[in-house]
């Protein structure tokens, strides 16, 4: 987000961003209250810090919150969002809602959404699995365009 508002060194530009299993939390998305994602964020951002009613209201974890900068100001022209259908840490709906939020924001860039049939970061442990190869090919194509 800051890259959309601030100049980078040597007038560098960020062309694209890859959001692989993005660690966002949104209200009304079913998430394991005792799960890793929720617990970790609760320690990082206690609710009363920043005057929030809930840690999920923080724009640091919820780019769709009222306190967050508009997604229309993303500092790149392309994004790729990858989510795992079997991810037990970040629910699939997080990626879907983020993509919808980006599109609804009026951002004029290109959005690529990829769902893979795997769990959180499965490609690290199963690089020969078909879905891992498909995901890496999608990443490579996105980067090399």
Automatic annotation (TrEMBL):
SUPFAM superfamilies: alpha/beta-Hydrolases
Protein name: CXE carboxylesterase
């Amino acid at each position: 987000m800051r890259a959309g508002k601030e100049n980078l060194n040597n007038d560098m530009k960020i062309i694209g961003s890859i959001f692989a299993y993005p660690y966002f939390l949104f209200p009304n998305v079913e998430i394991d209250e005792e799960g890793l994602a929720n617990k970790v964020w609760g320690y990082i951002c206690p609710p009363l810090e920043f005057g929030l009613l809930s840690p999920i209201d923080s724009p640091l974890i919820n780019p769709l919150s009222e306190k967050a900068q508009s997604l229309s100001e993303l500092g790149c022209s392309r994004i790729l969002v990858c989510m795992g259908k079997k991810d037990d840490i970040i629910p699939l709906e997080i990626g879907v809602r983020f993509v919808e939020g980006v599109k609804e924001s009026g951002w004029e860039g290109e959005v690529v959404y990829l769902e893979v049939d795997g769990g959180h970061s499965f490609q690290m442990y199963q690089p020969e699995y078909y879905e891992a190869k498909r995901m890496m090919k999608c990443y490579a194509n996105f980067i090399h365009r």
